[in-house]
Amino acid sequence: MGSKVKGFRTEKDSIGKINVPKNAYYGAQTQRAVENFEIGWPFDYSLILPYVIIKKCAAKTNFSQKNLSKKVSRAIISACDDILASPEKYSDQFPIPVFQTGSGTQTNMNVNEVIANIANEKLGGKLGEYKFVHPNDHVNMSQSTNDTFPTATLLGIVLSVEDNLIPALNLLSKSLNEKTKEFKKIIKVGRTHLQDATPIRLGQEFSGFESMISNDLKRIKLALKECSELPIGGTAVGTGLNTTVGYDELMTSFISEETGLDFNVCKNKFELLSSQNAVSNLSSQIRICAGSLNKIANDIRWLACGPMAGIGELILPSNEPGSSIMPGKVNPTQCEAVNMVYAQIIGNDSTISFSGANGNFQLNTYRPIVAFAIHESISLLSEVSESFSRNALNGLQANEKKIKENLNKSLMLVTALAPEIGYEKSAEIAKKALKDNITLKESAKVLGYLSEQEFDKLVKPEKMVSPKKL
């Protein structure tokens, strides 16, 4: 690889001559970008591999439309297949930072140059000469950065959500559903405003958690459909300049064939080149889902707090020591990881929202940071969902002794008395019980409102967790 071999070759582009690492598959424009954008970090393969798929499909399309020879088309396709089959082999050939030009031109040209040089090598040419395959004339034929970059972003999003996020959220939903069933018969204190409320089944509480994730997943899938509509074929400003009629439809059919997923040409290329609305919509749904998981993690963390001097109704798995100074301490680490992921996803969503509202005229010039931010959010939510499922939910236990103890102490069991003796008397019973540190039963008896037998008949927690039957 270029970074491992000493020496340089000289290449020439429209700016002039420049030295490029001797064995690098990238060329002059990539080298200029490396020197001019020493900012941040490069893209990972979540964007690069979708870009390579686009170049492969463009070579097929251009050959089908008789704009590219069989020889050149095959060389480009073979080069793309090499990268897709062994991406680790070319890991140092895509060094362009995320923070570059707003259209992503440097990344597009980096991909063009790498593919062109691999193709030239296959045809007996030398690196950097482009005797048989040219980065612009052949690899970039019928394309512009302005339609390929948003297409690569959307393609990568769909692949990542389908391959990673949806399975992770399904696993999370399954884990929550299993706990719903496991905790079905356990009755506990409900809480509103962080104060004791009427009883609830622990299984009912977890069913609410599972429903949140299931509905979030539905909304993510709906937003993903919009991301399957691609602006490929719009070229520079959406008009399709330098393409042949039918190019866009043929491209999406080849992309669908290559990925095994259903992609279509968007209805209006001018919109997708100048806006980020489809990505912004998906980002907001990912943020909402991350917020749901954050709420679930926080509730579980609160219910597990203690374990002796807190609520202590749940027992989290002891995955690792929690303190460097306090022996035996175990912390809700998976919950806290969720909290931090949510904070990062909020930041990414804000970045995407701001970016989508900017840019000028026929181009949104925040594309690289949007591509990075959405992929990071997808990756983080995927990973934390799986981690939380495996390392927190699967080993989560109910502390039934503590749950029963807290339930029996709850003053809000008095709510069951209100239909029989009225709100005011019921409130009086609760207030006296709290003031005198006695049970509700004792308070009702002292006040003369109910006998112990009458109280026991009315206050049955198991009958307070569902509507009364007619």
Walk me through the topology.
Layout: E1 8-12, E2 17-21, H1 28-36, H2 45-64, H3 70-85, H4 105-122, H5 135-139, H6 145-182, E3 187-192, E4 195-201, H7 202-227, E5 229-230, H8 247-259, E6 264-265, H9 269-274, H10 277-303, E7 314-315, H11 333-356, H12 367-393, E8 397-398, H13 400-409, H14 418-421, H15 423-436, H16 440-447, H17 452-458
Helix pairs in contact: 1-4, 2-3, 2-4, 2-6, 2-8, 3-4, 4-6, 6-7, 6-12, 7-10, 10-11, 10-12, 11-12, 15-16
User: How would a textbook summarize the main sheet?
Assistant: 2 strands, antiparallel
Low-confidence stretches: 1-5
End-to-end Cα distance, whole Å, is: 78 Å
Strand order of the largest sheet: 1-2
Query: Approximately what portion of the residues adopt beta-strand conformation?
Result: 5-15%
Architecture overview:
The chain has 470 residues and is mainly alpha-helical. The chain has three domains: 2-141, Fumarase/aspartase (N-terminal domain) (Fumarase C, Chain B, domain 1), CATH 1.10.275.10; 147-230 and 274-400, Fumarase/aspartase (Central domain) (Fumarase C, Chain A, domain 2, Up-down Bundle); 410-463, Orthogonal Bundle (Ribonucleotide Reductase Protein R1, domain 1), CATH 1.10.40.30. 58% of the residues lie in helices and 7% in strands. It has helices at residues 28-36, 45-64, 70-85, 105-122, 135-139, 145-182, 202-227, 247-259, 269-274, 277-303, 333-356, 367-393, 400-409, 418-421, 423-436, 440-447, 452-458; strands at 8-12, 17-21, 187-192, 195-201, 229-230, 264-265, 314-315, 397-398. The strands form four sheets. The protein has a two-stranded antiparallel ribbon. A two-stranded antiparallel sheet has the order 3-4. Helix 2 packs across helix 4 (105-122) and helix 6 packs parallel to helix 12 (367-393).
